[in-house]
Amino acid sequence: MSRGRPSAIPGPRVVIALLLLLGLVSVMLLDGYLRAEVGNDQRVRSGASSSEVPDSVLNGGPLLSFPGGTARTQSVPDRTIVLTFDDGPDPEWTGKVLDVLDDNDVPGTFFLVGSMISRYPGIVRDMVDGGNEVGVHTFTHVDLSYRSAARVTREIAQTQLALAGAAGITTTLFRAPYSSTNDAVDNYSWPVYQKLGALGYTSVFIDTDSEDWQQPGVDEIIDLATPKSGEGASVLFHDSGGDREQTLEALPRYIKKMKAQGYTFTTVSGAQQRDGQAQSPSGQDSAAPAGQTATPPAGAFAPEQAAHRKAGTATLWEGRALLAAVAVAEWTMPGLAAALTVVGVAVLGRFALMLVLARSHHRRRNRRRFTWGPAVTGPVSVIVPAYNEKECIAHTLGSLASSTHPIEIILVDDGSTDGTPEIAESLGLPNLRVVRQENAGKSAALNNGVRQARYDIVVMMDGDTVFEPDTVHRLVQPFGDPAVGAVAGNAKVGNRNTLIGAWQHIEYVMGFNLDRRMYDLLRCMPTIPGAIGAFRRGAVLAVGGMSEDTLAEDTDITIALHRAGWRVVYAEHARAWTEAPASLGQLWRQRYRWSYGTMQALWKHRRSLTDRGPSGRFGRVGMPLVVLFQIVTPLFAPLIDVFTLYAMLFVDFKASLLAWLAILLVQLACAAYAFRLDREKYRYLLMMPLQQLAYRQLMYLVLIHSCVTAATGGRLRWQKLKRTGAVGSPAPGTESR
């Protein structure tokens, strides 16, 4: 595959990736809004002055309306009971309450919370179909006296949309949370009632409270719900908000008791129609029926449901869209929570495994008597594929010229147009050969170099990488073991003096090199890095050379060698300094290619899962680990941050923050240990919290982008990164500290 100039990121796939992230965030925000107010604000006002509220409202009947713009209250007619229920619908209790009402042939008026309607629309449909009446109890059950006018309007409108989606209706009845009786109206909430009254709503209070929410006992609930002899009453029960066993036991006994005393049961609208009168502000009766501004068409609903309105077409479809979105959230969030639990366990397990195996690896490989076998002292071939590397090539070749191990250098110029081969030749290095070819891609350049190589061991490096003087010698020592077919070196970020460079430095030390120690001991190393790797020439030729089937030729050849029965190991002391991408755009292009290429290589070698014998070890151990740790876990791990933000907003800010910090400390401990093993300066770890907040999200988007490309069958060309030559030749004996 040829290498060309850097191309723009494919727009449609980036948009799809961003839309997936936006959709997920939207689902989480919707779910959080359904369950709790942002910030979990549950303030309830008490003891406020009611000096601006008319006495006729404070001391009047429980039904408050504003016909003609004037506040009027109405009492429930004598020997009439309006059973009202708050805080539903509830998936456990509301259906049982409806069964009690149906068995006793009495209707109820249910004041519903919009978020609960959205989650359990079927219960609301059954409620309305059963002849019961419904009213608005806000969308999130908040004290409206603390809310802005816009928030009040939104709370009501969203509840109406939920009702329309669930039962095809809207309602003119309203009850505010935490304000069940008339004397709860104060100077803060009074404007809310006035505004709703102007819109045609009847605000429904109570004059008899069963106090069932306190669970005082069944007999006490019945006594508290019983009005004075002969008087009508608006009675409060609850069908949600906790254990309602006492309510369910008390309700049928209460209904039978009141019927025995000659009482009838109706809804709010039924009470208004029976009385036919509303009280004026002065307390005098008026013939104007309550709610007259929104009288339903004749025959549209039963008299007991006169407060219901058939939802308009637009409202109906908006309501259905809301319910569909809520259904998606209801299914998505538990699934994501379960997935994140699995991922969290996997991540922590990986950290534990890396720490244990990395320590074991370090101790084994640094024993005084440890050897791979006979020392490798013979000359080796170093292959440098280059395409337009004029900024870096002199540093690269200069570092090789200082090698303490005998080498031949083969620079394979892949059709450069910037004078790269001329720069190389001008250096006058005696052990350098420059091989020119037409632009055919990195894999073709490496294969050409392998064919040109004179020695049995070939070292491959990138044209933007520099070696320390003893790098080659340290890198080839494992070939003293005849079972070793390839060796991975320790690639380090040379341009780590920028924020992006520091982030990648942390990733290289912790995410790559600590991983390689683990994979080395497990004998399933997935990738020989392109920046620094060594191979037996015969092994490479035997598996067909560097394949052009994937964009991750390094992963492809590594897996192929495993399947051919060769051992692949890690030489931690063979260090190479590479130039990491210096901008977010360059970083995106590089990681997009890496992610997509890795997926291609894994898919190409998917049959390794069924390989038998020693050559099947990668398929049995390495393939599952790579899929889990390099695709699945990175895809979900950034969501931990998103869920943390969700929990901070909607659950418990302090506890969520502490949990996130605990995870960060675990990662920091792993990173610190990795830095210790690699003898790196700890000061770069100060960048780690910001890396977790920003860098990891970028990698998440890159991985989604790669998955979308793979799913849509897209093809990605090699994308040449812009180099600056910022990484110079290291001095002899250079160390990280």
Please describe the structure with a list of short key phrases separated by commas or semicolons.
disordered C terminus; 8-stranded mixed β-sheet; elongated; 6-stranded parallel β-sheet; 47% helix; alpha/beta; 737 residues
Structure description:
The protein is an alpha/beta fold. It has 23 helices and 24 strands. The strands form six sheets. The protein has an eight-stranded mixed sheet, sandwiched between helices. Helix 3 (94-103) links the parallel strand 4 and strand 5. Helix 3 (94-103) packs parallel to helix 9 (245-260) and helix 11 runs parallel beside helix 22. The longest helix is centred in the middle third of the chain and has 53 residues, at 313-365. It is elongated, with a radius of gyration of 37 Å. The chain starts with a strand and ends in an 18-residue tail after the last strand.
User: What is the share of helical residues?
Assistant: 40-55%
Spatial strand arrangement across the major sheet: 18-17-16-19-22-21-23-20
The chain-level structural class is alpha/beta
Distance between the termini: 40 Å
Number-wise, the strands total: 24
Secondary structure layout:
Blueprint: E1 3-4, H1 11-35, H2 55-58, E2 63-65, E3 72-74, E4 80-88, H3 94-103, E5 109-112, H4 114-119, H5 121-129, E6 133-136, H6 149-167, E7 169-171, E8 173-174, H7 190-198, E9 202-204, E10 208-209, H8 218-225, E11 233-238, H9 245-260, E12 264-266, H10 268-275, E13 278-279, E14 285-286, E15 308-310, H11 313-365, E16 380-386, H12 393-401, E17 407-414, H13 420-426, E18 432-437, H14 442-452, E19 457-460, E20 465-467, H15 471-476, E21 484-493, H16 499-522, E22 533-536, H17 537-542, H18 553-563, E23 567-578, H19 584-604, H20 617-636, H21 639-650, H22 653-677, H23 688-711, E24 718-719
Parallel strand pairs: 1-24, 4-5, 4-11, 4-12, 5-6, 8-9, 10-11, 16-17, 16-19, 17-18, 21-23
Antiparallel strand pairs: 2-3, 2-9, 7-15, 13-14, 19-22, 20-23, 21-22
